[in-house]
Amino acid sequence: MTRLPDFRLEAHFSQWEFTARYHMTASDVQTMTLSELLALADDQDRAAFENLSLGYTETFGDPALREAIAQTFVRADAADVICFAGAEEALYLAMNVLLDLGDHAVVVTPNYQSAETVPLALCEVTGVALDPDRDWALDLDAVKAAIRPNTRVVSVNFPNNPTGKIISPADFTELARLCDERGIHLFSDEVYRGLERDPDRILPQAADLSARALSLNVTSKSLGLPGLRIGWITCRDRALLSRLERAKHYTTICNSAPSEVLARIALKARTTILERNRALIAKNLPVFDAFFAEFPDDFEWQAPDGGCIAYPRYHSPEGVEEFCTRLVEEAGVLLLPASTYRSELTPTPTDRFRIGVGRRNPEEGLAAFAQWMRGDR
Questions:
Q1: What whole-number distance in Å separates Cα of residue 25 and Cα of residue 13?
Q2: Confidence (pTM)
Q3: 3-state secondary structure of 36
Q4: What is the pLDDT of residues 139-152, one digit of tens each?
Q5: What molecular functions are annotated in GO for this chain (predicted)?
Q6: Helices (H), 99-250
Q7: 377: Cβ contacts below 8 Å, ≥ 6 apart
């Protein structure tokens, strides 16, 4: 395995995710129980789950699951989909297939750490930062300027983790065109797609815009089913998919059979699940608005354009790292400080923290947070 640095976010979660009393930085929407998911299944899929043979599965993924994924695209079909054990395996193997020594990649920051560190372990990488002073805007001219003759990949993530930013469909389409024009693979992390507050801002999927582009998705985030550990890449370059399959032979080989059937049920019920999850976020956001309105001198709050996480600014001179440490130790409220999103490629804000807005009943955690902020400790 390529030597990689410690994964700061996951190390932080290893310490606190299951011990903190209030998990207020969750990156996924409120999940459902197995019985709730099975209640959404048709008779055929319910029977398939109940009578499932627990043998090996196909490396590319269950054909019926791949068909259900393809149904979410305009121009892709089941043969353009390969499934993985979550989005992390997909990202790791894609970068190892697409990049080699002597290549170059462009990565938009901030991002989930492996989107940066995996390419950096393989080749030269240039970062292009979203601008926090312009509502996290992406400068397409900066992306264009970063591209070199040996650039093989441009990696983006919208709705963005951690900012919740969505660029315009016109800019995203232009980005795909720019990559196609130069023979570059656009790698698009779309794991929060479907949780946009404004349906008019839903971006096209990259694999629909370009035969070279890769669309990454997973059951974990927008569908709120991280326990299934099913992710996928959709790409109309089938020779590239074949290379991804051969790479997967060295990692998981194939996915969990029960998880694939459950993921198939979830994808078929996608409209229902996403409506539920968007409604939960819409219900929660006024609660977060009210919390941050109580402390205007301490925080700068902005609801996300999409997804279920936000990235507020903390104004106190003590600094966001000390603030998050004291908050979890003294009040049991877990947030993610800016250091977990530190980039080696670009300057990144040091006064921000990630907070999740997609879990049910956030009032209790916010009440403990507010009590601590007021000094009633």
A1: 10
A2: 0.96
A3: helix
A4: 999 999 999 999 99
A5: transaminase activity
A6: 114-120, 140-146, 169-181, 206-209, 238-248
A7: 330, 331, 371
